[in-house]
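ok so I'm stuck.
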Amino acid sequence: MPATETFKILVNGFVFHFSRSELESLDLVAISPTEFNMLNGHQSVNARLLKADLLNKTFSIETGGETFEVVIKDALDQQLEQMGFGTAMGKQVKEIKAPMPGLVLEIAVTDGQVVREGDRILILEAMKMENSILIHADATIKKVAVVAGQAVEKGQVLVELE
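replied:
not stuck anymore, here's the structure
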């Protein structure tokens, strides 16, 4: 990536722009996996990572007793945003649909269950292969719309989310 690449960083709704070279010039030291110290000029700042969503490039960082919600947008993110895709990315998924026709072998969730990103929802057999269907964000199961042993078509709703 070029040193002139600009990152758009949103902090609690305020927008900042930094070049790659500006970010690389920061003297950042990891004290632990979630604690950092940064020297910028003659100022030292301690920060603690509270939450990280790497997929969406969002972070909660605590420093000086305050919590900051940080979103990092690289050149591609900014280009997608300019094309109008930025707002669509933030929409919450309400249904999990079958990615292909197949047979539901096993259901790993129940109505009302809270699931975390990466949890298995069910196993779908298609073309003699077992495919684990995983959740891509934290959610609550509203309704399981299929049963084990049921044949499903591509695009059929498997699970509804709250």
